Amino acid sequence: MQTWRRTLESLCLSFGAILVGLLLFGLFCALAGANPFEVYGLIWKAAFGSSSTFQNTLIRASPLMLSALCTALPARLGLVIIGNEGALVMGGLAAISIGLIIGTALPPILVQIAMAVAGLVAGGLWIGAAGALRHYRAVNETISSLLLNYIAIALLNHLVGGPMRDPSSLNKPSTFPLAEVNMLGNIPGTRVHWGLVYGLVACLITYFLMQRTTFGFAARTAGGNVRAARIAGLPVGKLTVMICFLAGSCAGLAGMVEVAAVQGAANESLNVGYGYGGILVAFAARHNPLAAVLISLLVGGILASGGILQRSLNLPDATVLVFQGLVFLVVLYSDSLYGKIPFFKEKPIITTSASPPASPGEEPVMTA
Amino acid sequence: MAEGLGWWGVPLAIVAGTMRGGTPFLFVSLGECLTEKSGKINLGLEGTLLTGAMTAYGVSYLTGSPWLGILAAGLAGLVLGSIHGWLSQQFRVNDVAVGIAMIIFGSGIAFFFGKPFIQPSAPQLPTLNLAGSNVSPAVEAALQISPLFLLGLAIAPLMKWFFQSTRWGLYVRAVGDSPDAARAMGVSIFKVRMLSIMAGSFLAGIGGASLSLYYPGVWTERISSGQGLMAVALVIFARWNPMICLWASLLFGGAQALGPSLQSVGIKQGYYLFNAAPYVLTLLIMIVTCSPKRTLAGVPGALGMDN
């Protein structure tokens, strides 16, 4: 059982890491000649300052939640999958294809369901392939999923620039636009589209799947010790492929959301950093889907502040990338501090047992 | 480049592209090879490559000397490498995750400081001309060879000799294969890995310099198309052998030249798909050469372990 000290430790380390990342970033800004407090203020204002800017953050956070699951779920199996971007692109491509094929022949709700399913399946197959290669051919899943990213982007560029190109999109090649009625609407009273709900629901479902079901237990067991899982008769190969499929389908859904709620067509804006952002969210959340929701808000806020930093302080858009990188590095370092800070150490409690009297030095030690 | 040669332009352009496109692969894969021999993976070489490309271009532009640019690129790589080397050896820190963070951080640094250098043109490295004076301009252009390519050609056998026949090479191999044995020899695992990662990042930084100062010879945010990441796959394919890294780099450089060279003879259909050739090739090679039944020959024993 986790005690309050343990919980406090993981809370303190997570937030401490982000704070230290902020400090380092301030130092970086100061070195680059910008006033760090002004930068902090602008990020805060752009991310959470008013209800209007917070809605921008929410719009960015929803694909991040879905994309983060693509790294977080396989991590429970001990796999490092970084194919978020590729699965997102494939999901977006599949969704727009289905959306364009059906057109207005069916009611919008059915079209949207078909698009979501297409996104789920395409993304799932993409990362599922990386999982299958891992299990059946021992191909390193990190590298194969990364290569699949590049292949997916090449496919996107090919389709958008050639076979699926809308001739009227001159500056930025795009596919034909989705019919207006088939677009995902906004949550009433806000500018935030329904994709946010998709993200929240996906994080909730996967959390319960991993923490509260036998399937999740089997996956975590295999992640802890493959050999033990095999001896226990767990189908490790099937688990690997299924988890990877599930992970990829989350990122594919993110692609569908981007296409159906934001872009209205597939174009190169599909790969605008939700891939790496999702990886960062997954690691910072320690691969916990519920924590990923909160961290997505934070990272979504950082992404949303990129434009304003550029306009107000004339800092390059890459400032946001430096910030993400610094936070990521500090978050990784904070992992090594677990169990090293004396305050969070469990105090051994020496229990006095009735009989027989323990010989000196062999008292049963229990942790509370 | 290949106008006037017709279809002969395709193989010629591929040969030329092999030498041009192969150079960054060569440096990054040799750097990754050295790093992995010591038992750690550095995925962050993609970020190092970008930072190296930006530093080389910037320094070359500001000082007017491309050679200083190359040196600066190596040093910038060294700094990023020291971050990776230190962080990836902390308790419970996964080197693959650090690598991903370093990709983000390195490309962030490169794009942040590289913004002012996108417009101006920096002095490029001089090239050696292999072709005689009486050949057509296309052939002449194809046979211009960079001194960096020759340098890479020299480093590959040198590294092989280093691993096989020197005391320090033995230390690196011992740390990568069996940390316990290395500890028994009285070698500091931390120091050896730190130095290997830093030296490997130095090479990757120079690989970046070859992108911005030789081919394609510009600095843009899209200058690297994943060479730093493909190098990791390339080293696996090359079985951690520096000489095979050399041949594999040439193969990858050639695969990369396929798209542009077909475009130069007027085949525009599927340009992007041909550009994906190196990635598909890498994936196919990994599928064919890996097997769940045996570990790969030549893999450093401690690679991917928590120690």
TrEMBL record, chain A:
GO terms for cellular component: plasma membrane. Keywords: Cell membrane, Membrane, Transmembrane, Transmembrane helix. The chain crosses the membrane at residues 58-75, 87-107, 113-133, 145-164, 192-210, 231-257, 269-285, 290-309, 321-338. It comes from Pegethrix bostrychoides GSE-TBD4-15B. This is ABC transporter permease. CDD domains: TM_PBP1_transp_TpRbsC_like (cd06580). It is a multi-pass membrane protein. The keyword Magnesium does not apply. Its main location: membrane. GO terms for molecular function: transmembrane transporter activity. InterPro entries: ABC_transp_permease (IPR001851). It is found in: Cell membrane.
Automatic annotation (TrEMBL), chain B:
The keyword Zinc does not apply. It is found in: Cell membrane. GO terms for cellular component: plasma membrane. The chain crosses the membrane at residues 6-31, 67-87, 96-118, 138-163, 195-217, 229-258, 270-288. GO terms for molecular function: transmembrane transporter activity. It is a multi-pass membrane protein. Its main location: membrane. The keyword Repeat does not apply. CDD domains: TM_PBP1_transp_TpRbsC_like. Keywords: Cell membrane, Membrane, Transmembrane, Transmembrane helix. This is ABC transporter permease. It comes from Pegethrix bostrychoides GSE-TBD4-15B.
